Amino acid sequence: MSEYDLYKEIEKFVPFNEQEETDKKILLELLSNGEDILHRENLRYHLTSSAWITSYDRKKILLAYHNIYDSWSWLGGHADGESDLRKVALKEVQEESGITHARLLSDDIFSLEILTVDGHEKRGKYVPSHLHLNLTYLMEADPEDPLFIREDENSAVAWFPLEESVDASSEKWMRERIYSKLNAKLSAYKF
Length: 191
Hints:
This protein has helices at 6-12, 18-32, 85-97, 162-165, 172-188; strands spanning 45-55, 60-66, 71-73, 75-78, 103-104, 111-117, 120-122, 125-127, 130-141, 154-161. By secondary structure, the chain is an alpha+beta fold. The protein has a single domain (6-188), classed as Alpha-Beta Complex (Nucleoside Triphosphate Pyrophosphohydrolase), CATH 3.90.79. The strands form three sheets. Strands 1, 4, 5, 6 and 9 form a five-stranded mixed beta sheet that branches. Strands 3-2-10 form a three-stranded antiparallel beta sheet. The mean pLDDT is 95.
């Protein structure tokens, strides 16, 4: 794809469930209204990108212990002006885990979701409650690759067996509505 068109990528995404169907409609509406959602300076909502990273044998998921959420979670971050959210996800995986050879299993969006973020302190500054308009990409990596922690973001990075990856999170909604969905989609994914 020579020029990345975020609207078209979201438009062609096929929802897996009602949550994705509803969130897709909202994302397309927000993208078409002309408001800047690529930058976190939009304090109400902005685009983020996450990675659901599986081992080559599809039996493990890579998670980081996220300091702000005080929970094991996927890796990802803010678009910060980049409209190709695949690039954002790949960059965040490397920055948050040290893995340099993560590979997208598809250029297509794997999942999308609108996530609530409670107000919190980050680098000594208050960040108000807001929404993350998130696109998730499916990736694979080698569990034997060295991992490191990014101390300002997380306090641990580890591989979890597929069945334990959901339960590792202390966030009930993320376990029940997001991570379990991602594992269900992974199980149904045609490689």
